[in-house]
Amino acid sequence: MEQPEEPKQFENGPAPGILPLSPETLSSEKADRKCVLVIDQELPLGVIANTAAVLALSLGRQHPEIIGPDLPDREGSSHLGITTLPVPILKGTKSSLLALREKLRVCQSDLTVVDVINATSTTRNYDEYAQVLVTTPTSELAYHGIALMGSKKLVNRFTGNLGLLR
């Protein structure tokens, strides 16, 4: 039986273009943070996937520090960093998402809240999406999903009773 090849070693740390893991990357501050996505479980699978992608990308833009460093594989090829926090996807409904979004307004200074409304399915570009947001009464917005990031305690206060979307 052939023995697996040892990973490539580089004299001065990781492969070129790979950031070394640092104490900041592994800090205990991250241990107190939580990130969740709450998505309308009644949406078609493709819309759920798209909503999760949009929420995750937007959250990553707001918190680039949650993305880990690039990593090498066994052969030394580089793989771009991914999130260092778990991101559970929880189930919601059209009405529960509207209620959740209203409750979150009072805590927006303590949480990062990203939301996606149903206009993503009917508009062709960001300007059209913005127009729908600015012209639709808040009480009539239909949310496809909401992402939350903040202290575990606060995120759990709003989402602890929600099950995983499966």
Question: What descriptors fit this protein?
Answer:
166 residues; alpha+beta; Bit1; four-stranded mixed beta sheet; two-stranded antiparallel ribbon; 6 strands; 28% helix; 19% strand
> CATH top level?
Alpha Beta
| Name of the CATH homologous superfamily | Bit1
Instruction: Name the helicity range.
Output: 25-40%
Poorly predicted runs of 5 or more residues? 4-22
Report the major sheet: 4 strands, mixed
Number of helices: 4
Strand arrangement, largest sheet? 4-1-6-5
Q: How would you describe the oligomerization state of the chains in this entry?
A: single chain
Strand share of the residues?
15-25%
CATH architecture: 3-Layer(aba) Sandwich
Shape: globular
Structural class: alpha+beta
Mean pLDDT: 87
| Through-space gap between termini | 40 Å
Rg over alpha carbons: 19 Å
Q: The CATH topology, please?
A: Bit1
SSE arrangement, N to C: EHEEEHEHEH
Kindly state the number of beta strands.
6
Q: List the domain count as a whole number.
A: 1
Protein name: DUF2000 domain-containing protein
InterPro entries: DUF2000 (IPR018988), Pep_tRNA_hydro_II_dom_sf (IPR023476), UCP033763 (IPR017021)
Describe the structure.
- This protein has helices at residues 45-62, 94-104, 126-135, 152-159, and strands at residues 33-40, 71-72, 78-79, 89-92, 112-117, 143-151.
- The model is unreliable at 4-22 (pLDDT under 50).
- Strand 2 and strand 3 form a beta hairpin.
- The protein has 4 helices and 6 strands.
- It starts with 32 loop residues before the first strand and ends in a 7-residue tail after the last helix.
- The longest helix is centred in the N-terminal third of the chain and has 18 residues, at 45-62.
- The chain has a 4-stranded mixed β-sheet, sandwiched between helices. Strands 2-3 form a two-stranded antiparallel sheet.
- The chain has a single domain, classed as Bit1, CATH 3.40.1490.
- The chain is globular, with a radius of gyration of 19 Å.
- It is an alpha+beta fold.
- Residues 1-24 are annotated as: Disordered.
- It comes from Kiloniella laminariae.
- InterPro entries: DUF2000, Pep_tRNA_hydro_II_dom_sf, UCP033763.
- Pfam families: DUF2000.
- This is DUF2000 domain-containing protein.
